[in-house]
Amino acid sequence: MSAVAESVAVPATRLMADALRMLAIDAVEAAKSGHPGMPLGMAEIAVALWDRHLKHNPHNPAWPDRDRFILSNGHGSMLLYGLLHLSGYDLPIDELKRFRQLHGKTPGHPEVGVTPGVETTTGPLGQGLANGVGMALAEALLAREFNRPGHRIVDHRTYVFVGDGCLMEGISHEAASLAGTLKLDKLTVLYDDNGISIDGHVQQWFADDSPARFAAYGWHVVREVDGHNVDAVDHALQGARAAGRPTLICCRTVIGQGSPSKAGTHDVHGAPLGADEVARTRRALGWPHPPFEIPDEIRMLWDASARGLAAEADWAGRFEAYRKHYPTEAAEFERRVQGTLPAHWRDAVRTLLRDADCAAESIATRKASQQAITALACSLPELLGGSADLTGSNLTDWQGAVDVHSDDGGLQGGNYLHYGVREFGMSAVMNGIALHRGYLPFGGTFLTFSDYSRNALRMAALMRTRSIFVFTHDSIGLGEDGPTHQAVEHAASLRLIPRLDVWRPCDTVETAQAWVCAVERQGPSCLLLSRQNLPFVTRSPEQIAAIARGAYVLRDWPADSAHAQASRVVLIATGSEVALALEAVAPLVAAGIAARVVSMPSTTAFDRQSPAWREAVLPPGVPRVAIEAGVTAYWRQYVGLDGGVVGIDSFGESAPAAALFAHFHLTVQALLDEARRVAHATH
């Protein structure tokens, strides 16, 4: 007999849910590691969404008009892996057997780019919800930009699973508040309200009225849904489609549902059930099949291949009709979702760098950044800017920017978003926008507040999202606001994040080139920009081209014979301190020390260069001194233990910028003293 015939009294939805449960149990047990409780508790919720609502094509996970699904409570990753495997994605059963093993496609938490069908990397709780807000925002803006009467080529929804932990994290407040304000009506969040976290029953530390909280944000809230009743969840999902605002569906569940001894306890949250409890659970569920075995009849219930192929084929036909009526818009839409730059992009770059060089302005690099944005926006309609309530200070807006906002008609289009005082939320929302594709997001705040954004920056680097983080007021040079606002350790700490490019330019030309590199890069970038004016530096065309390498020779030591035997020193500087290094050259030469100035706007880009380039810029055996208005230890990798570093290893003070640079000995004289010391020590 077939499994379905043997279980004639068991509804198909129950068989589908139990298949998810057992795959999760078996994979966690095989790995001796994982979180089985959430997959067991959310199985029916997953059936309702994936079987009755989710628009997706397992044979093309990148189909532009697919619904997006995010597992924000990513510790329950086996729920998602089971869904992807059963519905037809390229995730064979052997990969589920390799759960949490080296180089497998089923890592401990879902990772975009590793597992087909995973939309974003989750695990740090709450960020998946914020990514979902970004994806829903991108969908809404693309729909406003590209849809035409009778032609809806952008029409998909974003679904997010969250747990108590996601809602405890403060980022959930930031992201949900913004989503409600913008009336992102195609965003639906399903809350696994099981009352359990790792430490036990959450009422001891999480007594919030979460439904009321989301209602206050302007969300449509569905309370007290039975999360183990597929029809009840289905009904709530249907209601979300007509809500006209984002929806939170509160599903009451039992963590570890089906486990006779551990259901409803924190013991099932983050540890395998154990062999005895697995056997008891199999009996309790009436599941007679060996580990990892799913009967074909149940697989057929789950298989979404035919439905997905039909949905995409229908969309493709509608898109071709759109292309016939709107060929220019269709081509632009395809370019945008593919993430390619316009054909005329290099011409725009040449114009930007030429204009920055010809203008020869001595201005703050935050102002130089605004000028670059203004120029780039003419060539890059995908630019979607914003700031965390510091637009007038970050200078992230530009002439012609249109504010994104909502009114009684819902979200209105635009290309500039006021994120409010939500640095962490902004950064995670930007990651969601980038992952969705169609826009190139950038957002600004003060560099010292990058601490608030830190984990979203790390996630951007981990996922290689094309997000640009603009951080102004980059040092004690901001002046009177004092140490709470003066970045000291921040540049060094950001440079330590793998795959994150960090730029600290010294003038208009370096700022323009930093923007170009950030736009062209398939990964995240940070631009660290000054509040105070910085002097323009003259360069040759070859030097301008070399900026993209991260470090280059800005002023070389004299080549005449009088200095052939002189002591030599390399001065390495970034940002506002490049001017100090240039000022030090003449006094050093007068003292018999030939000085080379190396501007190093991006240590991360420089580190990727060939050994030949790095040695040409920083010749071995020549003593080096670095100067930067930040912590000194970072620079030892470039100057060595015998080199010198002029910097600041304490917090700042409240005073005008000039007084602060003198007080902390970030001066030409301090650089001269250190250069003489290292040059004489090695000569």
Structure keywords:
thiamine pyrophosphate; 683 residues; transketolase activity; Rossmann fold; six-stranded parallel β-sheet; alpha/beta; 29 helices; five-stranded parallel β-sheet; disordered N terminus; calcium; 3 domains; transferase; 44% helix
Describe this structure in words.
The protein is of the alpha/beta class. It has three domains: 298 residues, 3-Layer(aba) Sandwich (Rossmann fold), CATH 3.40.50.970; 185 residues, 3-Layer(aba) Sandwich (Rossmann fold), CATH 3.40.50; 134 residues, Rossmann fold. It is 44% helix and 13% strand. The protein has 29 helices and 20 strands. The strands form five sheets. It has a six-stranded parallel β-sheet, with helices on both faces. The chain has a five-stranded parallel β-sheet with strand order 1-2-3-7-6, with helices on both faces. Strands 16-18-17-19-20 form a five-stranded mixed β-sheet. Helix 7 packs across helix 19. The longest helix has 21 residues. The N terminus is likely disordered.
